[in-house]
Amino acid sequence: METYIDVAVIGAGISGISAASHLKKKCPNKSFKIFEKRSAIGGTWDLFKYPGIRSDSDMFTLGFSFKPWKERKAIADGPSIMNYLKETVSEHELEENINYNQSLIKAEWSTEKAIWKITLFNSITNKEEIISCKFLFMCSGYYSYDKGYTPEFKGIENFNGSIVHPQKWSEEVDYDNKKVVIIGSGATAVTLVPEIAKKASKVTMLQRSPTYIVAYPDEDMFSNILKAILPSKLSYALTRFRNVLVQQWIYTQCRKFPKYMKKFLLNRIREYLSDDEIKKNFTPSYNPWEQRMCLVPNGDFFLSIKENKASVVTDEISNFTSNSIKLKSGKELDADLIVTATGLNLKLLGGVDLIVDGKTVEISSTMTYKSMMFSDVPNFISTFGYLNASWTLKADLTSQYACRLINLMDKKSYKYCSPKIPSNVEEDKDWLAADFSSGYIQRAKHLFPKQGNKAPWKNYQNYIKDWFDIKYNKLQDPSMKFYSK
């Protein structure tokens, strides 16, 4: 006999915990389960174990709207974030709702029954289980947990030292007194450099091209002052609101005045490094916020370079040798350990086979509705965070919208709902790839859904706009169809 639940939540990372917390509070009469592929909660924050792992957003926006972040440090390390997530699960009594080691492999919708039938694989029993649910809520993240992205480097098989991708880091990785080359220039690379430099004999960050890197205090003075004089929830809400406004303002200014903002951002590095170093290794060829910026707490990355504990080389790889990397410029970097901080492999919806009334759905052929649902896919919501702000901001809004939608359908006895593209909406540029040039997005742009040329089919990457839309706009608009039979 198949098990029935009202809502199936896929994934127990930040998005899944957000979804479950909102469901528990705002849809108390609805049954739900979280199905997590791994054996623990936390998603990204449990998966990555590399040295110094931390948030690259402040915890007042990366944290949940309903649970204040109480630590002094606004830029938190991985273990602190995991403790925060565990506290959330405990406070909302979610543990009983989580099923571990369960991978979603297929989801089949029947309009006749108005039901999703989902097939899960249990990695402990090696058996499949079928669950029926009214609503399917995808919180599976945006990348493959199986392996990260590593380009095909010529001669990599000849290298006699160790090679590790940060996604596969373990306690066995030894960098004490080693010559370490870190390939990459993103958030992971700039986090690893100062941490590994504490023990390694030499650390070199090898980048093909520079990235915008911003130094920022790891403690938020504004928040810590408010904490001392105001109740926790109020001080948290005010700090969160202020930080949202700052994030949005910076993003807007970068889009409107890219040359001015580029100059402003590069000038901030002069506190740490020389003009020659900035020009050679820290001046990107693209405009600010065409790719996600890297945040370094207290300028630790720049300080490691200033103090000659680490260095940056901007060049391209020619080939690997038995003990080095040869560059196209003719230079050679000796190495005992190479860390390939070269990015992620995007994987939408966890790679699930999605079937509606017997027909396989290719998400790339659909159009995204409010960046949360997909055209002609009923009772289905997916969390995908912002690229220009903290992921949790959009996860939180998506959870609120899902609860509003479920409650409306319950109140009016609707069986299912489905976004339908109106005749006056035309296909616009790619959903994400048109505005963001990051390699991991460009490599996977063929996987993305389309977007329309107007709301609610257009992705504005604007939290404030989305906040008003999701909290106050009517759920029953011309694009969302509801069915009683």
Summarize the structure.
This protein is an alpha/beta fold. 28% of the residues lie in helices and 22% in strands.
Present the secondary structure layout.
Blueprint lengths: L2 E8 L3 H13 L5 E4 L8 H4 L11 H4 L15 H14 L6 E2 L2 E9 L4 E8 L4 E12 L23 E3 L14 E5 L3 H10 L5 E6 L5 E4 L4 H9 L2 H25 L1 H10 L7 H7 L12 E4 L2 H7 L4 E4 L2 E4 L3 E4 L4 E3 L2 E4 L12 E4 L2 E2 L7 E2 L3 E2 L5 E3 L8 H21 L4 E4 L19 H4 L20 H10 L7 E4 L2
Parallel strand pairs: 1-2, 1-6, 2-3, 4-17, 6-21, 7-16, 8-9, 8-16, 9-12, 10-11
Antiparallel strand pairs: 4-5, 5-6, 13-14, 14-15, 17-18, 19-20, 22-23
Content-based structural category: alpha/beta
In which range does the helix fraction lie?
Answer: 25-40%
**Low-confidence parts, pLDDT < 50 over ≥5 residues?**
none
CATH class of the largest domain: Alpha Beta
Q: Specify the CATH architecture of the largest domain.
A: 3-Layer(bba) Sandwich
Shape: globular
Strand content: 15-25%
Provide the domain count: 2
Radius of gyration: 23 Å
- The CATH H-level superfamily of the largest domain is FAD/NAD(P)-binding domain
| Overall pLDDT | 93
* Terminus-to-terminus distance: 24 Å
CATH topology of the largest domain: FAD/NAD(P)-binding domain
